[in-house]
Design a protein that fits this description.
mainly alpha, about 0% strand, globular, 6 helices
């Protein structure tokens, strides 16, 4: 049943919040996966006087999930140097990279919420499927094109499956949080005509 809080703006805000929470969950899941697969030898750091380069982000090989903070820090450094002709400190890379990842997750969450509410599709199917779409566009295509991580074809199959699974979990978390935010919002029910 539709509510008065199902205005596009309310739905978009709920999706933005849910997507940001999902992005945080993805980061935690990837860090746990890196710890389990790679042990402590592969720390997620951007230490060093010049930060990291794309080559360093790729240097870990096809058997370890990408370090989220290294990928996002490298991305924002590429944007800073390519578009603005400036270099960021390692701390600025880490902060801007985190902000970018939250904004990216929020953007996909906002789109999900608008589509789910408008099309009234089953959230428990659409959520994980949406997460796979996010993987396909990001880590499956765009991030490798930007030379920030290896393409799926060059990764071990178990790693690709894990990263897809993490993104499907992002979609499930996204669907759950959007659902809870819609249920929690005070509103008066509107009867369908």
């Amino acid at each position: 049943m539709k509510t008065m809080n199902d205005t596009p703006l309310n739905v978009a805000i709920n999706g933005l919040v849910a997507g940001m929470l999902g992005a945080i969950a993805v980061t935690v899941m990837v860090r746990l996966g890196r710890a389990v697969i790679g042990g402590r030898a592969h720390a997620d750091t951007t230490d060093g006087p010049a930060g990291i380069s794309a080559a360093e982000a790729l240097s870990e090989g096809p058997n370890l999930p990408p370090a989220m903070n290294q990928v996002t820090a490298t991305f924002v450094q590429k944007v800073a140097t390519g578009l603005f002709g400036t270099s960021l400190t390692p701390e600025q890379q880490a902060q801007a990279g985190t902000a970018w990842h939250l904004a990216y997750g929020g953007f996909w969450g906002m789109l999900y919420a608008l589509i789910q509410t408008s099309a009234n599709l089953p959230k428990w199917v659409l959520g994980p499927a949406w997460g796979v779409v996010v993987w396909a566009v990001g880590p499956g295509w765009l991030v490798p094109k930007m030379k920030l991580m290896l393409p799926p074809a060059q990764q071990q199959a178990r790693l690709t499956a894990m990263v897809i699974g993490v993104h499907a979990a992002y979609g499930a978390i996204l669907a759950l949080v959007v659902h809870l935010l819609r249920r929690r919002a005070p509103s008066s029910r509107v009867a369908r005509p």
